[in-house]
Amino acid sequence: MKFGKNICILNVGGTKYAFTREVIKDFPLRRVSRLHSCSSEKEVLEVCDDYDRERNEFFFDRHSEAFVFIMLYVRSGKLRFVPQMCELSFYNEMIYWGLESSHLEFCCQRRLEDRMSDTFTYFSEEDIKAEVESRGEEEQVGRLGNAPWLERMRRTFEEPASSVAAQILASVSVIFVITSMVILCASTLPDWDTAKNNSVEEHRYMHNFNIYPSLIIEAVCIGWFTAECIVRFIVSRDKCEFVRRPLNIIDLLAITPYYVSVTMTALTGENPQLQRAGVTLRVLRIMRIFWLIKLARHFLGLQTLGLTLRRCYREMVMLLVFVCVAMAIFSALAQLLEHGLDLETSNEDYASIPAACWWVIISMTTVGYGDMYPITIPGRVLGGVCVVSGIVLLALPITFIYHSFVQCYHELKFRSARCMRSLSSEFLN
Questions:
Q1: How many whole angstroms separate alpha carbon 157 and alpha carbon 317?
Q2: Triad 421, 425, 429: Cα angle to 5°
Q3: Contact 389, 364 (CB under 8 A)
Q4: Residue 57: what are its φ and ψ, rounded to 5°?
Q5: What is the pTM of this model?
Q6: Distance from C-alpha of 109 to C-alpha of 105, rounded to nearest angstrom
Q7: DSSP strand E in 54-164: where?
Q8: Residues 335-389: tens digit of each pLDDT
């Protein structure tokens, strides 16, 4: 530092500290030590907030009490939080002066991690990309005449909490989903087939079509889902991105089987010999259960579950690897102890390793159906070890998945609250 006096004064929030140039040069705080390398007042003002040349005083508009604790770290080498001060605020002060969380004492590091875990909001690359696209769309509003209503329509169909109309549309969609699921479940009841056959006979005169209320309700629900999907595709910004989204793929998988089944029914008619076509129709019909996943658009819990599974895929793979390795080991040992050693009193339930794998998986998960169990003493000892091992192995990754679930829940709850605030403002206006 080629200017000022030999004594430098640091004014931090009104509290002054005097140091010599030599102390400033080797000061443990990076921001303070940078003052020594400054060759002009312009460079000094890039480090501090103000500079008084006459008194050689450097002013920092920062928390004075927090700097007192930071100075205690400079003197004693121990850094702790300021009492009655937010951990995140103190951490911001640490970052400003060039310190990191590793400089904190271990107990304070744990407090900081817990605090950050409670308040952390994760913005993924998709969110940032969507925000950039939203800004680009807003810039085009002035140039395109139909952009305003197109954007409002897109938000109405894609963001259920964006407006009152979007909430009404989402409620209607949920009603159709629930109705279609009730019809699907009721159609598997034995009495339902009897009622359906009677209804067919009663309405045989209506243009020779098999028309009964359940088919009408099913057709209306499919019509609603089809129209909703088509409109969302038309008003989407990027058609390729729309097709690649998982929820949109699920919508397509839930809608397509109906039209395929109607087409196959029209082609095959009532011919009982076409058993393969009948099986295909039943498989396509049961695929409508995917409609339940549509509820993820409107319910925070399902969104949290999906987001947690997407972010914890490594932990899920690790859990699967744990189970597979343990299943291979215990199934081989169980087959040997129950069937391979003594052929006269062998347990036929454990005749092969794949058969023993079923016993291992229901034992590790503590389900225990009781359909197969060891009868030898070594096999029972192995069963106890298998159960205890399963409890331990399944519990290891659960902690990571739990913390990720809590984090995803708070994130989505924060976004939902922000959308509700904007919705309240719109409603009041």
A1: 35
A2: 170
A3: yes
A4: -115, 130
A5: 0.52
A6: 6
A7: 57-60
A8: 888 887 766 677 888 888 988 999 999 999 888 888 888 888 888 999 999 999 9
